[in-house]
Amino acid sequence: MANALLAAIVESSDDAIASKTLAGIVTSWNRAAERLFGYAAEEMIGRPIAVLAAPGREHEMPAILERVRRGERVDHFDTVRRRKDGTLVEVSLTVSPVRDGHGRIVGASKVARDITERRRAERERELRFGELRHRVKNLLALVQALARRTATEGRSGAQYRDAFLGRLDALAVAHELAFAAEGGADLATLVGRTLEPYAGECGAAAVTVAAGPAVTLPATKVQALALVLHELATNAVKHGAWSTPEGRVRVGWRVEEAADEVHRLRLRWQERGGPRVAPPAARGFGTRLVEHAAAGELGGPAELVFAPEGLEAEITVLLG
Amino acid sequence: MPSVSSPEPPLRDPLVLVVEDEFLLALDLELVLERHGFRVLGPTATVAQALRLLEDGEPPDVALLDVNLKGEMVTPVAEALRARGVPFVLASAYGSAQLLSAAVLAAAPKVSKPTSERRLLAALAEAVGR
């Protein structure tokens, strides 16, 4: 009765359970072992367990049997075995000695658990963790670059701080929008959020956003465009329309649909009512940032026209 | 007697190929390197562009490579550089375990990201000196 009960428990277990002699010949094989390895009990009983060896792991089974012979138990040994159909399966093995009525070791019992799912989840977690670490380090590198590139010449400590923090804020807004939703960020929201501090400072009338069609920007382009808009805005405050109370900035966009499916966003920035504009004598970091962002990240180009009545910029973004 | 002209290259600043997909970091690197007496080839953001620059123009003296370019590994550029005998330094925000998969990358000198200007320049100088 007790034996029948034990046999029933083994038979209904979710883990593959088998027994073998010290020579590695299978003596019992439960239902779960049939499911896991694809061999029926009739096929396995009497055959060497070595048929399950995965290529390159043939040495493992004799080593396990040797330990069992010495009376040791092999606990949760994670390895790979080969199924009947040739596919490989990741398993966790526990192998214990089986003794006869005199206490002699006569064989081994083996419990194998399928850990494919656990391993897949582990790998996915590692991958995500790696991506996250990459993103964080990259972000630190960006902050470092912004700190290094914010000019110190002719500025007080407080002015440097404010200029740096302005850029950092644009980066923060971009980061928030880029990862807030799957698939990207809304252009109108990005423009609004990036120019918000200036609309506040320069008066709500100082900026007009003539929203074009709804555009979802890919996450990779959000940061570049936010920094470009920020540079245009700080330039307007320092040298352009927003350096006078009457100055105005108009931002608008349209989307050109091309036959090759690569849609182009044309974003226009137009300043009016500020001081007369002369082309800058030297290209500052802001100008280079706009050009690099356009050529690299956004798909470009960026056109900056220093018209006497006000700066005009057209930024082209490939929407893919 | 006039000396036989030795094949001495004209004095010029070393040319460094910069491969970096993050435009802001690329711009920062360009400015750092220019200020420290390098000429910059690129920066380029993709493997294809980098390979084209290597095909077409003046060969660089050294290269600075970001490892992962928007999901694309920089390995083909590293191999092309090795074939031309151009030393290179890797800059990556990934841990070294993720680099070891390609031997050509595993063997190269590395700087982490972010890194200080001093460490970056030292790594480049050492690579050129090899």
Nearest-integer average pLDDT of chain B: 85
Q: Approximately what portion of the residues of chain B adopt beta-strand conformation?
A: 15-25%
- Under the CATH scheme, which class of the largest domain in chain A? Alpha Beta
Order of helices and strands of chain A: HEEHHHEEEHHEHEEHEEHEE
Count of individual domains of chain B: 1
What is the C-alpha radius of gyration of chain A, as a whole number of Å? 34 Å
Gross CATH architecture of the largest domain in chain A: 2-Layer Sandwich
What attributes does this structure have?
heterodimer; A: 320 residues; alpha+beta; Beta-Lactamase; Heat Shock Protein 90; 2 domains; five-stranded antiparallel sheet; five-stranded mixed sheet; 9 helices; rod-shaped; B: 130 residues; alpha/beta; Rossmann fold; five-stranded parallel sheet; two-stranded antiparallel sheet; 22% strand
Short description:
With 320 residues, chain A is α+β, with helices and mostly antiparallel strands. Chain A has helices at 2-12, 31-37, 41-44, 60-69, 116-149, 157-180, 187-202, 219-238, 285-298, and strands at residues 16-21, 26-29, 74-82, 88-99, 105-114, 185-186, 207-210, 216-217, 248-256, 264-272, 299-307, 310-318. Chain A has a five-stranded antiparallel β-sheet with strand order 2-1-5-4-3, sandwiched between helices.
Structure description:
The complex is a heterodimer of chains A (320) and B (130). Chain A is of the alpha+beta class. Helices cover 44% and strands 27% of the residues of chain A. Chain A is built from 9 helices and 12 strands. Chain A is rod-shaped, with a radius of gyration of 34 Å. Chain B is α/β, with parallel strands linked by helices. Chain B has one domain: Response regulator (Rossmann fold), CATH 3.40.50. Helix content of chain B is 38%, strand content 22%. In chain B, the strands form 2 sheets. A 5-stranded parallel sheet of chain B has the order 2-1-3-6-7, sandwiched between helices. In chain B, strands 4-5 form a two-stranded antiparallel ribbon. In chain B, helix 2 packs parallel to helix 3. The longest helix of chain B is centred in the first third of the chain and has 13 residues. The radius of gyration of chain B is 15 Å and the shape is globular. Chain B starts with 14 loop residues before the first strand and ends with a helix. At the A-B interface, helix 5, helix 8 and helix 9 of A face helix 1 of B.
